[in-house]
Design a protein that fits this description.
single chain; alpha+beta; Alpha-Beta Plaits; five-stranded mixed sheet; about 30% strand; elongated
Length: about 350
Amino acid sequence: MARPDTTDHFAPYEPLPSDLPATNRYLVRFNEGHSIEEHFGFLGAPLGDVQYQHLEYQAELSEELRDRVRKDAGVKEVVQQTADMARDSTYKNRSVITYPGSHLEVAPGYNVTFTDPTYSKWEHLRSIKPRVDTNPTPAMVSYQAEALSEEQIAAVFADPKVHSIAQRMWGRYTDYIAPYQPMSDPPAPGPKGPRVEYIVYFHEGHTIWKHFEWMGGPLLGLTHQHLMYNSIFYDEELERVRRDPGVRLVVQADRKMRREAIQSNRSVMTCPGSGFDEAPGYHVFFTDEEYTLQEHLQKTGLSLNTTVHWGLYSAELTDVEIQAVLADPKVHYVSKNMSGRFN
């Protein structure tokens, strides 16, 4: 349960310079005495993909979640980052990286990474006192240590060619399984079990591409919106989907439920993993085939050179125009146009 906002605190925010492309990766710095556990308590749930060091963490955040983070009174500042800036921040902190909120199992020991790919662990270890025991495999760029005392950690960080020390994680997940809401009257099973449609909801910060990685490849035939998608699974696929720690909820759906979920999301629909090239422009679908373009344009204040056929129209839209279109309650959804060509 999220801790209520008791102050008007809004931590300072430093965006990237205007000549750099915006990213959704941020560095969040804490005030002295604040902890990642207290921060997760404020947010109401752990963030699943966080790299934490002493008094700061790095994570991918939506704008909405970023602003929520800034309201935590224990947050000192939030800084937008490029990949190079994130790497520099990790190096400057000089404390062990941990992954709170991850559903991966923690493994014994640490991974030590170097800044220089030509630097060998043998050069490094000769300068370390007290002695550090490592795995027997020679390594460049990084090595694994089964255990490090605080004194050894300090000695390792004293080598300027050490980029970071990170907690080791097993490549296996914990027993996480997302909640599931079946229909009260599910369809009859087929030869491989019921092949029916589901709505899959993600936790904040999760993406469809991370989900595809978990599933072992893209899922065909799905429609994706902000933090959710619709698709059809067999039972065995449903089990795999629910095991993804980034999945918040899976709902078995009929056509009516799917339409309601799509309309309530109010974000652009895409078809990632379809294999088709995207094309310029968007399709806008109305909830009512009798709804006219003139009524729609009057409600949105837009001026578009297009026509409506069978309750939909096509147009090239800016981000601002998309938000105006989605503000019309007679709009069912907006989808990205596809070229019809396989990539």
